[in-house]
């Protein structure tokens, strides 16, 4: 029985997904001590070729060549968590071929073995040639949306998923599907839909920041438990970097509700931050070979680099324009005894900064208005409010939802949903203001974000929501946000104005002598 009462999403964040104690059945896991190379744990599905490994030295189980590579790459004291060794090997008297992906995890080596498919040609495999061609096409894409569409298309061609989404996080960790490439026959589209932060809880995002990809071959798999030497059981086996890690059962339920069986997600990292995910969906189980999984990670990285490049170019141009306008204003100020005139009358004015709809100066209780602003009396009230509420020592203020801080401004959201302010002097007698209009927007969610979590009646169990029906939210009262560098330029300009104010004061003092 499921009640509709929302459950605290913090419950989702408590699941320790890095130590599930089980793996997916397509993989076989052997855990060895990185110092002694003795096997301390393994999954319950160890194939005959590796029979009864626990307590044995790895040397008794693996071919010499593989053992030597493991030692060289993963066993030193300086080796970082997550460093990987990939190899192909044959095991046991029958010389059965296996793919090996081994990695370092603390004082342990985790080695995962997967049977090489009997008919590898049945699976899309991506070699260096395909990857290079795909990266080349990604390089040719211009603009974020085109690059995202290209990344979705290329990733789908390489991995064979029925659908690939490019999913982008916003600053609050809600997400949006900004590109989609899918088979014709799947008449579901998630393109353009938004999803709340709780769909991918904080500990999952933290894990995805460290470990770059996960693949579920068959959503309905039976997890394979890990067993350990009695002594080793005290420290749970950390599967953060394990390819075959068993995923959260809550998330697998979510996939069921979405109609997804085989899946993947690959982290898109921009400037050290989890920018988004490449998400793969398949209606049936879907096996992706280890080499192809690695190729998907390369594509995600190539896309991430393009995003970083485009974002920094755009930012650079915007900053150059602003710095040029600011320095023209500072030159005017240097020639002038009247800062209000210098900022509001020449070829360049305050309105040339920060894509503002309106601007104002407030100086000893008198107001000068430019562009679309609230009326003078309201601007004076805003100045008074900021003078009183800004903490001591702070010289600037910016908000894209000013009425939330100052309800009296609610009638002026058309002109001043966003406010950027910089005080000129420590007494806060002089103030520069920029206003931005409301940008009403609608956000289409994949399901009602206010009830993301359902609790089974009378228990602490959490379940993901079951409906992904389009749900449209209208957002009012907010402008485009001000960037931190824009606040910095406003502060610098206010400082230049302070020089003029001091000069003005001295002049008046001299005259009145
Ligand atoms: C993980 N949730 C995830 C992942 C995705 C999503 C992509 C990464 C795991 C993977 O590779 O499949 C969510 N999938 C989406 C979204 C879209 C999609 C938004 O296709 C849209 C296009 N999830 C919930 C709730 C909880 C929850 C309410 O909705 C908690 C109670 C938990 N999601 C949850 C957890 C994980 C997760 C715990 C981590 C899974 C893991 O890595 O073990």
UniProtKB/TrEMBL annotation:
Domain Phytochrome chromophore attachment site: 143-302
The name this protein goes by in its record: Blue-light-activated histidine kinase
Similarity comment: In the N-terminal section; belongs to the phytochrome family.
Keyword Nucleotide-binding: yes
Catalyzed reaction equations: ATP + protein L-histidine = ADP + protein N-phospho-L-histidine
Superkingdom per UniProt: Bacteria
Record lineage: Bacteria, Pseudomonadati, Pseudomonadota, Alphaproteobacteria, Hyphomicrobiales
UniProt keyword annotations, A-Z: ATP-binding, Chromophore, Kinase, Nucleotide-binding, Phosphoprotein, Photoreceptor protein, Receptor, Sensory transduction, Transferase, Two-component regulatory system
Top enzyme class: transferase
EC numbers on record: 2.7.13.3
């Amino acid at each position: 029985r499921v009640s509709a009462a929302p459950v605290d999403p913090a419950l989702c964040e408590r699941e320790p997904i890095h130590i599930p104690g089980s793996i997916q059945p397509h993989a076989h896991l052997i855990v060895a001590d990185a110092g002694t190379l003795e096997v301390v744990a393994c999954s319950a599905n160890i194939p005959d070729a590796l029979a009864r490994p626990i307590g044995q030295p790895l040397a008794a189980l693996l071919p010499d060549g593989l053992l030597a590579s493991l030692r060289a790459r993963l066993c030193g004291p300086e080796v970082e968590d997550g460093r990987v060794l990939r190899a192909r090997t044959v095991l046991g008297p029958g010389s059965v071929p296996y793919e090996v992906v081994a990695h370092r995890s603390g004082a342990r080596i985790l080695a995962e073995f997967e049977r090489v498919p009997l008919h590898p040609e049945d699976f899309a495999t991506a070699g260096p040639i395909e990857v290079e061609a795909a990266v080349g096409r990604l390089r040719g894409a211009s603009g974020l949306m085109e690059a995202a569409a290209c990344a979705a298309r290329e990733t789908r061609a390489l991995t064979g998923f029925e659908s690939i989404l490019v999913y982008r996080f916003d600053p609050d960790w809600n997400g949006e599907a900004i590109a989609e490439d899918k088979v014709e026959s799947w008449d579901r589209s998630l393109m353009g839909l938004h999803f709340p932060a709780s769909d991918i809880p904080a500990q999952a995002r933290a894990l995805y920041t460290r470990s770059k990809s996960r693949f579920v071959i068959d959503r309905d798999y039976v997890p394979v438990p890990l067993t350990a030497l009695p002594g080793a059981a005290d420290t749970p086996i950390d599967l953060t970097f394990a390819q075959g890690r068993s995923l959260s059962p809550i998330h697998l339920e979510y996939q069921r509700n979405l109609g997804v069986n085989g899946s993947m997600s690959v982290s898109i990292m921009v400037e050290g931050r989890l920018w988004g995910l490449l998400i793969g969906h398949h209606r049936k189980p879907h096996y992706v070979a280890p080499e192809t999984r690695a190729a998907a990670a390369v594509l995600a990285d190539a896309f991430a680099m393009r995003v970083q490049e485009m974002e920094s170019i755009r930012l650079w141009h915007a900053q150059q324009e602003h710095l040029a306008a600011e320095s023209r204003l500072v030159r005017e100020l240097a020639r002038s005894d009247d800062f209000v005139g210098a900022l509001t009358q020449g070829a360049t004015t305050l309105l040339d900064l920060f894509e503002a709809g309106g601007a104002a100066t407030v100086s000893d209780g008198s107001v000068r208005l430019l562009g679309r602003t609230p009326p003078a009396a309201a601007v004076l009230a805003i100045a008074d409010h900021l003078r009183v509420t800004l903490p001591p020592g702070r010289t600037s203020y910016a908000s894209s939802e000013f009425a939330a801080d100052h309800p009296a401004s609610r009638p002026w959201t058309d002109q001043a949903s966003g406010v950027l302010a910089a005080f000129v002097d420590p007494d806060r007698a002089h103030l520069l203001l920029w206003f931005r209009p409301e940008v009403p927007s609608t956000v289409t969610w994949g399901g009602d974000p206010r009830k993301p979590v359902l609790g089974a009646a009378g228990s602490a169990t959490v379940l993901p929501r079951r409906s992904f029906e389009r749900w449209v939210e209208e957002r009012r009262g907010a402008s485009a946000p001000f960037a931190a560098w824009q606040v910095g330029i406003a502060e610098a300009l206010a400082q230049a104005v302070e020089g003029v104010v001091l000069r003005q004061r001295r002049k008046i003092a001299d005259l009145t002598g």
